[in-house]
Design a protein that fits this description.
The complex is a heterodimer of chains A (about 250) and B (about 190). With about 250 residues, chain A is an alpha+beta fold. Chain A is about 50% helix and about 15% strand. Chain A has eight helices and five strands, in the order ααααααααβββββ. Chain A has helices at about 1-15, 25-60, 70-80, 85-100, 105, 110-130, 135-145, 150-155; strands at about 170-175, 180-185, 195-200, 215-225, 230-235. Chain A is elongated and about 100 Å long. The model of chain A has no long low-confidence stretch (mean pLDDT about 85). The longest helix of chain B has 23 residues, at about 20-40. Chain B has about 190 residues and is mainly α. In chain B, helix 7 packs across helix 8. Classes of the chains: A alpha+beta (about 250), B mainly alpha (about 190). The interface of A and B includes residues 9, 17, 28 and 109 of A.
Chain lengths: ~250, ~190
């Protein structure tokens, strides 16, 4: 044992003396820690931005209205929800959690708690950014007017998506109000002239007085075969305050 | 004061300043302990001496990352632990990502009690008799706590898990050991 220990020590010291093993400088570790910290911050920012985009997309396209349309609305919401973005965000948070385990505060926290804290942080910051500030609306306005540099300009321009008619989702502007129906001109959020007209049969006991002509609405329902009549199970006004949510008119 | 009378941390600081001989003193102090840890942790390996040597070389390479205001022992065990884990992974060639359920949530019930002398002695005898039938994640905490006499916090820093996870693993490790030796008439040999 004594001999083994001696030879092990001599082997290691010989490698050190003949410089086949080098001591890394302190700066290397400082730089490594700073780099890991920076990567963690960047990932967190991207994660917050993703949540912000998800929420803004739901607001911009009116899909969050589905949450107030009962069980069918909830089902439709799950169908139109941008799941790939959410999965990407969860993957980023998982990576961030792994990265933070390099640090003492990271590995001393139980895995689940740290993961939930990071998800809560990304979600609340994304929510605050979209609902607490007008930054998305202003950036969209700039993108619409060509004032947002690439790739942000393209990202914001592609946030408007046509209403998925095959999922029973429609958007439009009210042109006429009846007793239990409204006539609506379809609006696919672009600037061309392909908008067609629909008659929307409102859900029973629906308070029609809340609407007026010229207002924008989000409609969920079933279209009768071969007609342009929609039997709605949910109608919700789209925010008129968001003129900036509309593309510039030619 | 001769180098052998200096603390690990003072020796480590000397190594950081370029004194290679101080590293030799640290090796003398830790080699037997780390080999014992390796023998218990890895059990069926015949290359423990090589792995411990690799751990010392890695420690020398990274000595500038050691904070001399902290204890040297957990830092050295951490490096050795990583070396052992990486050797196990190389041999198993398993790419499966495992989830450590012990580290998912906290286990507040398991604090760091000072083990009674009798318990310490009994556990050492059981551990010395062999840990092959105990899962490696429980084996390592049993060895670090009862043989190497490290605290929960130091073990947590070595394994990079929450302190409460060390407590729950230790409890489960003891239960597993008890299950292995439950049919032995006189497990302590006393």
């Amino acid at each position: 044992m004594e001999h083994n220990s001696h030879s092990s020590k001599e082997t290691v010291l010989a490698k050190i003396r003949e410089k086949s093993v080098h001591m890394r400088p302190k700066l290397f570790f400082t730089f490594e820690t700073i780099l890991a910290g920076l990567v963690a911050v960047v990932i967190l920012v991207v994660s917050i931005a993703l949540v912000n985009f998800i929420l803004f997309g739901l607001r911009l396209n009116g899909h969050e209205s589905l949450l107030g349309f009962g069980p069918r609305g909830l089902l439709a919401f799950f169908v139109v929800f941008p799941w790939p973005l959410l999965i990407l965000d969860v993957l980023l948070v998982l990576f961030l959690e792994t990265l933070l385990r390099r640090f003492k505060f990271g590995y001393r926290s139980p895995v689940l708690y740290l993961l939930l804290a990071l998800l809560a942080l990304a979600t609340s910051a994304g929510l605050a950014l979209d609902r607490g500030t007008s930054v998305n609306d202003r950036l969209l306005y700039q993108a619409d007017h060509g004032g947002l540099p690439s790739p942000f300009g393209e990202i914001y321009e592609h946030m408007r998506v046509p209403a998925p008619h095959d999922r029973g989702i429609f958007r439009g502007t009210i042109t006429e109000i009846g007793t239990s129906t409204i006539r609506m001109q379809h609006d696919d959020l672009d600037t061309d002239q392909d908008e067609s007209g629909y008659i929307v049969i409102l859900p029973s006991n629906f308070d029609i007085t809340q609407f007026s002509a010229g207002e924008k609405v989000y409609v969920a329902g079933d279209m009768d075969d071969g007609t342009s009549t929609i039997r709605a199970f949910g109608v919700h006004p789209l925010p008129m305050s968001g003129e900036i949510l509309l593309p510039p008119q030619p | 004061m001769t180098p052998t009378e200096l603390t690990d941390e003072v020796l480590a600081r000397s190594v950081q300043q370029g004194d290679t001989e101080s590293f030799g003193v640290l090796m003398e102090r830790y080699e037997a302990k780390l080999k014992r840890y390796g023998t218990k942790f890895l059990a069926d390996r015949d290359d423990i001496t090589d792995l411990v040597q690799d751990a010392f070389l890695r420690a020398y390479q990274n000595i500038q990352s050691f904070d001399t205001s902290m204890r040297f022992s957990p830092w050295m065990y951490r490096i050795t632990h990583n070396e052992f884990v990486s050797a196990v992974r190389k041999r198993s060639r398993s790419k499966v990502i495992s989830i450590d359920f012990d580290a998912l949530v906290s286990h507040p019930a398991y604090d760091d009690p000072a083990p009674a002398e009798r318990e310490q002695r009994e556990m050492r005898i059981l551990i010395d008799r062999g840990l092959e039938k105990v899962s490696s994640k429980y084996r390592e905490v049993l060895v670090l706590y009862y043989l190497e006499e490290l605290s929960y916090r130091e073990i947590a820093d070595i394994l990079q898990v929450p302190v409460s996870t060390v407590g729950i693993r230790l409890k489960r490790g003891k239960d597993a050991l008890a299950a292995v030796y439950k049919d032995t008439p006189n497990p302590y040999g006393t």
